[in-house]
Amino acid sequence: MEQWYCFKCKEKMEEGEVSLTYGDMALPGAFGVKCPKCGAEYLLEEFVLTQVNEGEKMLEAK
Ligand SMILES: [Zn+2]
Predict the structure, then answer these.
(1) CA 12 to centroid of ligand 1, rounded, Å
(2) Which of 6, 32, 44, 48 gives the lowest tally of CB atoms within 10 Å of its CB?
(3) Which domain holds residue 24?
C-alpha cells in the first residue's frame, strides 16, 4: 500500500471515501485520500495526476 502525504502540511494522509464536488458533479463516496490534520481531501486519481505534474515541473527545472 502506498503512503500519501498532504501537499500543505506533509501529514500522512488516510485513504478512504471522500465526498467531493468535481465541477458540477457531486461525487459522494468516491475513493480518495484525506488529511487528518488540515482536512484537505483529494480524489486518489486527481492526487496522482498532481504528483506527476509536480514531478514533471522538477524535471523541467533542471
Ligand atoms: Zn494537510
Answers:
(1) 8
(2) 48
(3) 14-61
